[in-house]
Specification:
Blueprint (H helix, E strand, L loop, with lengths): L34 H4 L12 E3 L4 H5 L3 H6 L17 H23 L6 H7 L11 E2 L18 E3 L6 E2 L8 H7 L2 E2 L2 H7 L16 E4 L17 H10 L5 E4 L9 H8 L1 H10 L16 E10 L2 E8 L8 E4 L7 H22 L9 H11 L12 H10 L5 H41 L5 E4 L11 E3 L4 E2 L26 H4 L20 E2 L24 E5 L5 E5 L8 E5 L2 E4 H10 L7 E3 L10 E4 L3 E2 L6 E2 L5 E7 L9 E6 L10 E2 L10 H4 L1 E2 L10 E2 L1
Parallel strand pairs: 1-3, 6-7, 11-15, 12-21, 13-18, 14-23, 22-25
Antiparallel strand pairs: 1-12, 2-5, 4-6, 8-9, 9-10, 15-16, 17-24, 18-20, 19-20, 23-24, 26-27
Helix pairs in contact: 4-5, 4-13, 4-14, 7-14, 9-14, 10-14, 12-14
The structure holds S-adenosylmethionine.
S-adenosylmethionine (SAM) binds next to strand 16 and strand 22.
Length: 698
Amino acid sequence: MSDNLPRNYNEYDHVPSTSSVNTPHSRSPEIFNHGSIYSLDSTNDKTQEITRHKSVTPSNTAKPSALNKKKTSKSDLNSSGIKVIRCSEQSLDNVDAAISNAENVLKSIEKSPIDRNTTMFKNLCLSENEEVCEDIVLTGCKKKRKKSRDENPSIRKYTQKVSSRIVNNGSSSSKMETDMDNININSPVDIEEESNDSLDSTSTTTVVPNLVMSTPKTKNRVKKNSNSLLSSNSYRDFRLTQSKDTASITFPSILENCDPAYQYIVSDRRVQDFIRNAKMMEPDDEVNAYDPTEIEEIINDEIILGTHYYLVKWKKWSRGFNTWERYGALYNSQKLILKYIDNKKTDEHVNRSKYVNGIELMMSRKMISMIFEIFRTETGLCLVGILPEVITGVLNSHEDGPIRKQTLQLHSLQNFLTSISLGYFRQQQLSKLQLWEIEINAMTKSSQIKVVNNMDLEGPPDFFGYIKDYLPQKNIIIPDDPPIGCSCRRNCLSPEECCYEMSGCLKAYDNNKKIVVPPGNPVFECNKKCICTEACPNRVVQLGSKVNICIYKTSKYGWGIKSAQDIQKGQFVGKYIGEIITVKESEQRLKKGTSSLDNMWNLDFDDSQNYKYIIDGTHFANFTYFINHSCDANLNVYAVWINCLDRNLPELALFASRDISAGEQLTTDYFSRCNQDTLKKNGTRCQCDMKNCQGYYF
Ligand SMILES: C[S@@+](CC[C@H](N)C(=O)[O-])C[C@H]1O[C@@H](n2cnc3c(N)ncnc32)[C@H](O)[C@@H]1O
């Protein structure tokens, strides 16, 4: 989103608006005219829980895992603190096999760079890594003191250390101990396989109400092939058993969740040297220099063997994927280099220490892309499995033999190790995505959300706080006490004067809870003062979405969402939420550039001139944050009132505008929510590729 930061803040009238969905025939609900509603002395006591994702912290990634530390005796350590395993004859055979396989891979890359045959990588796998993978186990329920709502911070920061995240409150119980003991997180290889599972739409909708997640204190080795928390199945089981209790789950740190072989490789100084030298093999390619618009910042430089390298932070790639690039590859990015040099003069120390996390990829982005292509398969990305002792053998082997052979070996090794390193990063990425998925699902009541990135190595989006309800600015109160409700018979199936009628509006839903009124009609659901139950057809948005969705990386415009099941026309899909801020505050945020226009909606359903509030989803939102624009969108937006009857504070609900098949991307029409007059002047190029694509959106 960083490239789409606000344009001139005077374009403020582009902020998505709900007024545009208000048809000329619809009118403000009568209930709005009861002045008393607006002077209700209700307080907004909704303390909601928020998880905030941040990218992995330098200290997390730089530290060797506890796992390795435990297994390594002092005498085994070499200068880099890594256990060195002497090669047996068999290992040396493996070494030869490794090198010849690496060479085959190299040849295949050269011959057919687009060939994504997985067997190349299967060949590269010298042995199954099951034996060396430490499975990580959930430690089972520890009786935790119940936390009151007041104790819970309203905004919690998510770090990869996963420090004590309270997902919900409740009483503790010993029942959990037995249930939880069977839940574990499998090896990364298992995770990779499971990451491509599709969501089962028939899965349970039971919520995890009381869950405390914490950093690992103990780690047990568990049986191979045991259930993985990270698989959809065990996750569902887990959710089913924990309905009333407080559970303690020990999460592995990201590093610990990686195959030790990978950790071993990327932290070995000699391996780093190999990879570093691999850069020297690339041509100094000024013709194909990178497009500077892809680069966010240059953050470090180093001279290696007489060649000047720059550490590049790429737009839309997290810092873990900073790469070292030769000057030639940055030929068109002179301005960025100058800017870096300028910054360096003024703030060298901060600049240098800011991003360095010890395991930056010591290779160019081109090399990453090339090797990354080999990892990619039809169904996702595959990984290399390898034993640490094999790597040791490979590393040691190049020291003997004739020079020509050594050179060849070195060449193969460089590529081989680069591939392995990428596998390591893939593991890290998958772990991060899975942890984020768990966090999101713990906050999502009735549906399941899957997170998938098979496009590149990026982890969860940075700086994104996941919330489940509006987050009002400090001085804004969202009333939660409607003055009136209906008393229709048969759960409103025989309406006398149902809520929508009292409000002078149309009946929005049919008896199957599908929306039937066109966009622009206000929706009045039954509220807490009504006598009807949840089965009432006029209670839909308030019960939460039942649609399983997948947040995934698209090939064209970053993250998006797609349906993980078939959706029927009129079905409720989700609420657009974010911070509720005043118009003035939104102007300031846009001016300062701290919020993005792309993520703002005016709450101007009732009055497009004098509305008070804006939803700002830039920093806090739910999955709807990722909805992309399409000129042929399949979701419509409606303003819905439930327990808050303030005309300025409707909920924004998304409903399917047609039948949608599983796997289809879910989109809205950004046009429908902004001032059409100035569109062309300020439009952003649209890449929806629909037949009716207008070529741009606001
Ligand atoms: C509300 S965000 C949607 C999530 C976003 N794709 C992401 O990765 O965070 C809107 C941004 O997505 C991208 N986007 C959405 N729809 C698009 C479209 N039809 N064509 C091009 N870019 C689009 C633009 O970068 C836009 O600023």
